[in-house]
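Mods, move this if it's the wrong board.
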Amino acid sequence: MAKNTKRGHRVGQQKNRYQQENLLTKFFDLFDGSGNYLRSKKSKGKYKGVETRRAKKPPRG
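Not the wrong board. Structure tokens:
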């Protein structure tokens, strides 16, 4: 598990997590290792210490 340093960054990576940018909302969505949706980020930018992946399919709509 990643550790907070209280200096604006993490040491290590969060295991079994990845993020993808939601092209409709322009925010990042967090998923677990099985691909289950966990939550969306409410502010702009990425989650710290989480692997970023690209979406495989274009968004619907």
